[in-house]
Structures are given as C-alpha cells and as structure tokens.
Amino acid sequence: MRTSLRRHAPTLLRTISRSSQYDAAIISNAPRPAAAAATRPAAVAPQKRWHSSVNADEISHFNALASTWWDPHGSSRALHLMNPLRHDFINTCRSTSLSSSTTVTPEPHSQPTAGQQQQQDPKLRYLDVGCGGGIFAESAARLPSTHSVTAIDAAPVIIQVARQHASKDPLLAEPKLRYVNTTIENLASTLQSSESKFDVVTLFEVIEHVDSPSTFLSHLSHHVKPGGWLILSTIARTWTSWFTTNFMAEDVLGIVPKGTHDWNKYINEDELRGYFFKFADEQGWDLSSLMVQGVVYVPGLGWKEVQGSEKVGNYFLGIQKKA
Fold this sequence. Notes:
Elements: H1 2-17, H2 19-26, H3 56-64, H4 77-100, H5 114-120, E1 124-129, H6 135-141, E2 146-153, H7 156-166, E3 177-181, E4 198-204, H8 213-221, E5 224-235, H9 239-252, H10 269-278, H11 280-283, E6 285-298, E7 302-305, E8 314-321
Parallel strand pairs: 1-2, 1-4, 2-3, 4-5
Antiparallel strand pairs: 5-8, 6-7, 6-8
Helix pairs in contact: 4-6
C-alpha cells in the first residue's frame, strides 16, 4: 500500500497545483481545463451527437457498467446504500420551505376538504438528471407523494437497463416514470412547454462528470419551477477525497471501478456556493434556502450524515427557486 501511495503522489501533486483553474471554472461559462489522460473502456454503443457539457468518455465508462447497475453488491453498491439519504435530504429541504409557507390548516378533529388536502400534500413532479440505471428514479416514483418522475441520462445503454428494470413493475409505467435518453441541454425539445418545469430537480453524483459545470447548471436551472428545489450531491476536491475515492476505493479496495472518478472534476462546496451567489438574481435562486449536508461512507455501516464533512468529501446541496 505504501508503494502504491508513493507511486500516486506525484500525480496528485501535479493536479493540486492546477486546482485553482477549476475553482474559476465552476462559476464561469468556460469549460474545465483538460485533465490528465486516463484509460477508459471503449464505447459499447454509438453515441448521439449532442451539443452538451457531458463528456463522451464518461458516457462510455458508465455504459460499460450498465449490466451491474441493479446489483446491490456490484459496481453501484455505494449508490444503492446512499439512496435513503437522498430522500432524507430532499425531505429536510422541503420541510423548511413548507414550514415557512402559509397553508390552510383544518380545525382539530375535522376532516380536510379535497382542496385543503391538495394544498397540504401536493403531488410532486421530479426531474432526475443523470439518472443512471434508475436507483433514485424508481424509488421516487413509488412514493405516494409523487405525481411523476422524468429521468434522463446521456448514456443509451444505461437508459435501456433502466427501462427494462422498471418494466417489471406495472405501477412504474409511463407517465408515472418516464426515461429519456438525452442531455439537459436538449431536454426542452422532448417536453411540452407546460411540462418543462419541475417541483424537484435532482442531480446525484453527476456534476463531477461533466466538462462545463456552470453551463450545465445554467441549463438545469430552467427546469426548476418557482418555489421548486434543486438537489444535488457531489464530492469536494481535497486530499482526503483523493485518498478515499481514487486511491482506496478504486486502486486498493476495488469497490469502485477504475476510471469512475476524476479528482480534477470534483467541486468544493464553497465553489458551488459561489456559483449560486453569482447567478442568484439571473436564475432566481433564494440564497436563504441553501442547505448543505456532508456524508461519510463507513464500511459495514453505509453512509452516515456527518456535520462538517462537506469540506473534505461527499456532500448534498439543496437550493430553492424564489416563488
């Protein structure tokens, strides 16, 4: 292990010396600087030619992992284990806005009218961007509070896996759960204008795989309805995250396929804050609603919420559009 760590140290030092370039990339429309070349699996299917911030090598990599997406002990095990925390964080974010909003409250011991019930418990429309094989999308579609889920991914093979898995459950048939092989830049062309904005837009473990995060977030913001939430998760760019996600997870333990993570593309929590502060007025973000929660993977126990860990590793971030 010591020999392997010494072998990787020069690469890490070179990437850290360039990290200031990435700080600026997240809050500008410029693409990220080119990272060091990495070996990627060959594409398993022809790729559509899209104008997109999605990286073709990333799509090929995840296409190659598609067959094991729904194996809870396979290459996507960490995502399966994280899924309950995704729902917990969404509930936490939405509960803050619901508690501060004015709602019609029925008298004690009385039954709410149909109109009151609808105002108290609105059915939610989700957009899951970079849905992969559908781990979150399926779970969200099964919630009684969900009206529908639109889930998109640029990887065609993974979308096929997602559709095949969902087809086993008749309750997940369209329009309850709809999978679309597209990018966020091209999503609008597949939707009617009345369907283009959503109550909750999710972006789980995706933004660290795109080439132009600012452009990506700008396109995504158009699909968050006034009063709706953007919920995302990603990884901070630190020594600790390199050691845990690149060195230990990929190179030593092998619990994550090699090539899954590019440390250069990780985004620090303060960089994302900087983006939303910069574009708050233009895109309509309510800065007072911004919430962050760090999470840590504990072997044998799964993912746990740890306050302050957003500064060193994985974290969730949520922000609401002004109503």
